[in-house]
Design a protein that fits this description.
Radius of gyration: 22 Å
Largest sheet: none
Shape: elongated
Oligomer: single chain
Helix content: 55-70%
Strand content: under 5%
């Protein structure tokens, strides 16, 4: 987080158009340091919160990737997986992690029908366990 946080601080500083002396005064006031390299992870969080209070808005995390492109014979299974994920409000990365754990295959595009069936069964079991429709 620390190097990523420092990068976010610099992005926010530029987007807010802060002069160097104003920026250093903010660091001194919020964290008691004169340089972002001396910030601890907790202080980085405080500085980011202060920059947000001053009007900076983080763009947030990027949207999840689209559904995998597979052959027609596997498309029905991928559609079922997509429906289970949408019902549970989970990203495709969740299904890929399950596929990696269950089938030892890194991407859904590389799975065959049997492996996709196992993934559908696991998602159905998860839905049933959490009280969602199957």
């Amino acid at each position: 987080m620390s190097s990523k946080g420092r990068q976010l601080i610099q992005i926010a500083r530029r987007q807010l158009g802060m002069e160097d002396d104003t920026y250093r005064a903010l660091l001194e006031r919020v964290a008691g340091v004169s340089s972002s390299t001396k910030l601890t992870p907790r202080q980085i969080g405080r500085v980011l919160a202060e920059l947000e209070r001053l009007g900076w808005q983080s763009t947030g995390k990027p949207a999840d990737r689209p559904a995998p492109q597979v052959a027609d014979d596997r498309q029905r299974l991928v559609n079922k997986i997509e429906a289970f994920l949408a019902e549970a409000n989970r990203p495709w990365s969740y299904a890929e992690a399950m596929g990696k754990r269950i089938c030892k295959v890194d991407q859904i595009e590389w799975m065959d029908c049997k492996q996709l069936g196992k993934l559908v069964a696991a998602l159905a079991y998860d839905a049933k366990r959490n009280g969602r429709p199957v």
